């Protein structure tokens, strides 16, 4: 999915304030299992455009925090009756992770891929040095998330690739069941290609369960549907490193993302992840001149033009201030 903002701004993470702290949360050793304390990262509404524009809630990147592990972009949308029509657009330096709760989306890319994604399936696109793609869905109920994973320096110029995984492995425990989308959770590993230590999972909660976590990771929890204690629809709850488990109580579905804190500074602008202003400017120039990103065949419409770069130079920034 694209960032369709016509004037995408440079994201400068502020220190932010924690919106709330759960007084029943774990102590300073971090070994507790509740969802708090932690930061509640509010999203902002972003329209995706088109005649029947779909609005998404973007919680990463944001004012309080830029990344969770290598996860650098989280858009949640639906449930709503909507039509998705995202024309061909470029990406660099990242992976796109498409995950649906309801509906279906058709993916096309410059590698020649034509692939639907449906609930419980994973579409994973590795941009590397450069790829372009489009996404479409009919006017119908649609509910899901689109996520980006920043590629580390040693892999960000890798060749572009696409993977479709129709069935994901599952970790089961008392009160929960987790489909492992990316990385590893509780010893269960996703078949999807990952370039940094991370985790992504859809957790179905039915009662009370304690989900194992990697204590070296920072994590984020996003309520997809239902009712789960300490979570509400919209915001993303951030959990710092040091937790070996998280307790989830209620009935609903929760997206879990996490990973080792990303140690590199990056520049995120429009649909590019790079390391400097000049690099981003070069990517934009190549896209506008029709070079470096291939051609998406079969989409009925013109590619997206890149917005104008801001007047001030883009600066590499870390995951949080």
Plain-language structure description:
The chain has 321 residues and is mainly beta. It has a domain at 39-259: Jelly Rolls. The protein has one helix at residues 277-288; strands at 39-41, 44-47, 55-60, 71-82, 85-91, 94-102, 105-109, 114-117, 122-126, 131-136, 140-150, 161-165, 170-173, 176-185, 188-189, 198-212, 218-228, 236-239, 245-259, 267-269, 272-274. Strands 1, 13, 14, 15, 16, 17, 18 and 19 form an 8-stranded antiparallel beta sheet that branches. Strand 7 (105-109) and strand 8 (114-117) form a beta hairpin. The protein starts with 38 loop residues before the first strand and ends in a 33-residue tail after the last helix.
Keywords:
321 residues; mainly beta; Jelly Rolls; 8-stranded antiparallel sheet; 21 strands; globular; Pirin family protein
Topology of this structure?
Elements lengths: L38 E3 L2 E4 L7 E6 L10 E12 L2 E7 L2 E9 L2 E5 L4 E4 L4 E5 L4 E6 L3 E11 L10 E5 L4 E4 L2 E10 L2 E2 L8 E15 L5 E11 L7 E4 L5 E15 L7 E3 L2 E3 L2 H12 L33
Antiparallel strand pairs: 1-18, 2-3, 3-4, 4-11, 5-10, 6-9, 6-11, 7-8, 7-10, 9-12, 13-14, 14-15, 14-16, 16-19, 17-18, 17-19, 20-21
Family: Belongs to the pirin family.
Pfam family, one: Pirin
Protein name: Pirin family protein
